[in-house]
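Hi everyone, sorry if this is the wrong subforum. Our group has a chain we'd like a structural model of before ordering constructs, and none of us has done structure prediction before. Sequence below.
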Amino acid sequence: MTDWANKDDVIKSVREDGYNLANASNELKSDREIVLEAVTCNGYALIHASKELRADREIVLEAVKSNGLALEFASKELRGDREVVLTAVTESSVFVLQFASEKLRGDRQFVLEMVKIAGSAHPVFDQSALEYASEELRNDRQVVLEAVKSVGSGLAYASEKLRGDRQVVLEAVKSNGLALQFVSGEFKEDREVVLDAVKSNRLALKFASRRLQIDGIMRLASGEENVSDEDLFLSAYNEIEEKEFDKEIFGKSLAQADGNIEEAKNLYIKLRVENLRK
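Answer:
Right subforum, don't worry. Here is the predicted structure as tokens:
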């Protein structure tokens, strides 16, 4: 039977399962050797370490290397330590940024680094570091652009002003079509934005305006099979009318029509549908 007041017994136990530190006597929870063994085995054991040792940089680094979520239990000072927080994020995900200090979450260079690695380090989580950035940085165009390029859904945490920025919106929906749900109403009516979103994720069409949800080209892009030529001709015509046409195809149409604009428009509709049917 383990004697939780006996150092040798406790060391042996925490080497098997670091979380056994919870059972140790208060005196041994303040023992640096024991706590270091515990957090190396299970970083989350940091929750049971003494206040003094939760401010020990070496111990906290070992803890977050083992389990990034241990950052929550580090001292206030260490939750503002760049290396400690970066190690925690790398091991876990940007989710742990919520435990970083307010000062660090408002540090522009640090947040830029976080938003760039968020999508590549743990893409399965599809979580943006922008969620935990300061309000000021959520309104920083460069930060937000980098964030949505990495994780499109991060658009949800951008300022209202930047959710109305066309370039920001385009980058977001190209990264993740479902980001279309977070854009302002005018972009749900924007053919280029919606088409890019649907190409990225066909389910994005449900977030478009009703007019574009029934548009033939959009439906075809979303994977719908029974789209008639008439619907596609109408969509191509609308592209011309709304001046949101495919520039390459229109260029070919204009060349074939010897510069005649009206003839080029008619030819565009024919070539556009043929291109869509390929």
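For your construct planning: The chain is about 50% helix and 0% strand. The radius of gyration is 27 Å.
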